[in-house]
Each structure stands twice: as C-alpha cells, then as structure tokens.
Amino acid sequence: MRRQVVAAYLVPLKDARRSNEEVLVMRTRVLSILAVMLLSVLAGCATAPSRTRNICAIFDQRDGWFNNWQRAAERTERKYGVPVPILMATIYTESGFRPRARPPRRYLLGFIPWKRPTTAYGYSQALDGTWDKYKRETGNWTASRTNFADAIDFVGWYHYQTHLQTGIALNNSYDLYLAYYSGAKGYLQGSWRGNSTALAGAKRFNGMTRIYAQQLPSCS
Question: How confident is the model at residue 47 (pLDDT cuts 50, 70, 90)?
C-alpha cells in the first residue's frame, strides 16, 4: 500500500520535472533564434551596400525597421536643409558606405605598419575632434561614426555649419565638398587650390550628386 502511495506521488513529480525541462528547452531555442536574428541584423549593419552608385538600391537594401537609411537621410534634409543627394554623395565619396572605413596606414621602411595619417573614421570620415564637437553642439552624446543615422546627421550638421561660416549655398555640391575636405577656414584661405586630391574629390562628388538627384524621384 505504501509503495502505491509513493508511486502515486512520484508520477506527478516526474511529469512536473519533464514539463520544466521542456520549458527550459523551449526558452533556450527561442533565445538562440533571437541571438541569430540579432547577429544577422548587426552583421547587415556592418557591411557596405553592394550597389553604391544607385541611391534607390542603397535605400532598398538598407530599408527596414532596424536600419532605415532613407528616413534618416530625409530627416537630416529637413533638419539642416541639405539635399539628400548631397548627403548621400558625401558618404559615397568619403567612405563608399563602409561603416569602419579608415585612411590606410603608413609604413616605415616600406614594410613596418605605422600610424594612420589622420583620425578619420566611419561613414563620414569625421575626425576625432570634429566628431566630439558635433556631439557637444548637438547633444547627441551616444552618436557613433559607424551608425548611418548618426553619420548622415553629422554630414548635414557639418555642411550647414560650413554654409554659415562661408556662405556656400546648401545646394552647391562642388564647393561644399571642397570645404568638407579642407575645413571652412582652409576653404576660405584657398588651401584646396592646386590640391589634385581635393579637386578630384570635388569633381567626383559633384558628379555623384547629380546621379543621385536624377535617381531619387524614382525611389519608393
């Protein structure tokens, strides 16, 4: 009789233990799936678009709840008055939409890795000091140079500051790039004159702005 009573209690205990184990297994599976999804999103955010010369393709590839580039670009245009094609052409020219872009390292004796020429980093290739100034003046203390929304907001802010300091029109892509490359003071002093890198960059930037401007109306 006692064995029967003990057995009667053991059966529910085994069932409860089995249920707890099943719950733990289900939780583990759900967490694993969520981790994979999160890693996929982060991996997608860390890679450059494949068709960088087509603004609609860039927006389509990067569109989504987690990382909507088109809304970020349009929001920046409304905030600073800098046209979307100029914002996007800036990032195209500076980093090719690579989130962790840096200037190549210098080499000692031709083979020993050394320092990089500047602290430029991220989508916008903003320098450390300029990025810190942007965060102070905008209050965007958590901004990251590898985050597209932050980077394009920086680009809009920088072009707007250039406009205030130099009088360059916000739709003057050629001169805006020269000032982006040389700084407002360098632009006013004409440091870009005779600088083949700056002039070639401005020409490429101006051409890309026109291409994006032609494509933008067809973007959904």
Answer: confident
**Cα 115 to Cα 152: distance, rounded to the nearest angstrom:** 27
Cβ(191)–Cβ(180) under 8 Å?
no
Q: What are φ and ψ of residue 189, in 5° steps?
A: -85, -10
Report the distance separating Cα 181 and Cα 83, nearest Å.
18
Answer yes or no: are the C-beta atoms of 184 and 160 closer than 8 Å.
no
Question: What confidence tier does 216 reach under pLDDT thresholds 50, 70, 90?
Answer: very high
131, burial (CB in 10 Å: exposed 0-12, middle 13-18, buried 19+):
buried
Burial class (CB in 10 A: 0-12, 13-18, 19+), 136: exposed
Q: Locate tokens 């965060």: which residue?
A: 135
Q: How close are the terminal C-alpha atoms of the chain, in Å?
A: 77
Q: CB within 8 A of 174, min separation 6: which ones?
A: 202, 203, 205, 206
Q: How far is 85 from 117, CA to CA, in rounded Å?
A: 29
Distance CA 72, CA 48 (A): 16
Main-chain dihedrals φ then ψ at residue 146, nearest 5 degrees: -95, 0
Residue 136's pLDDT is 97
